Amino acid sequence: MKSIILEKLNQQSHNSRNDPYIGRMRTLAGDIFKENGVPEFDYKKELEVLCNWLGIEENYEMAHELVGKTVGLTGDRDIDDQVISGAFAMCLGNPVGVVSDELGGAAIYHYVPDDFASKSGISGIYDVGLGGWFPMSIGNDGGINGKRRKAYKPFQLTRKSLGNREVLDGGEAGIKKTATRMVEMTNQYVRDKKFAEDRKKLSDWIKKVLQLNNVGGDKSKHLAAIAGVLTNPQIVRYQKDPVMLKMDEKDGKIKLSSHEWLVAPARTLESGIADCDDFTLVIGTVAQMLGLDVEYRIAKCNPGNKNAYSHVYNVIGYPAGRVDGLTGEDRVVVDIVYMKRLRDGNNYMKAYGKEPKTYGAMDYQVN
Fold this sequence. Notes:
The chain has 367 residues and is α+β, with helices and mostly antiparallel strands. It is built from twelve helices and twelve strands. It has helices at 2-14, 19-35, 43-54, 57-68, 77-91, 116-119, 171-191, 196-212, 222-230, 265-271, 276-289, 336-342, and strands at residues 96-100, 106-112, 132-135, 165-169, 237-238, 243-247, 254-263, 273-274, 293-299, 311-317, 331-334, 361-366.
């Protein structure tokens, strides 16, 4: 049973043709967390709510349909439950393990990070408890909102690469490649004809945000208004990049494989979920459309590994004679994840213009 579950999860997570369905699974999960008020960064609570949600038969059938489009489910409920639970956990960036029991069965264990905050340069703030491996089984304790009839936002994945997402290598090499690719994507996204429709959607969204925030024609406050909206978890919620299982060709064992998923800006706003590079790409693209200068800064923020690049955010520059309306500076740091971590109640602007503690950084200029 264990080998079957691992094989199915390997097939589900590592086949690029499954990307549209993995995207839908992520969006669906993000909507569930928003509806049930799950705090951002509380990964254990996310997994608990998700497993309880899956325990409602109508929801289970929806999840079964989605996962079933990525891999052939067996029809054995004991096996399929574990595959579905593991597939959703992995699409949310949570590593999974499969443990055999004495009766020949197997169960999924989900890994919850111990201290995500340290990687964002703000260790000790808003920690959500101890991490580790937790058994998560599908079931309903009545503690969540139940029925959801096709409530997730469907992806219209008609374009390749920039229109969907890109998988880049994880680790230091991956995040450097990610920053380089973000510069290329921003230029393409702002100028390329094939993204005209996306630009129109993004432009309309910007106008709506500015109208709702009553900033009018004061261009100095436009960026801050947009950043404030993006830090609202009901608009776009932080979620880690998916993890994948990969078969090692040498020993035949299935191992976890970490990747950077880079998502185009309009798609991020469609899905309502993002990680640091996705938030940064949205702000950078919007800033370019507002006529501002854009740099992508990759930084070493993890005190447990000061030599590793672990985070990316924006440095936005104003033209000569113009300053940011909130900070009064002509160069302003905009780190949406940092702002989310430091928010105080409804005050999403507490960390606007402030930079997390870093142990070194590299800037990538958008030309």
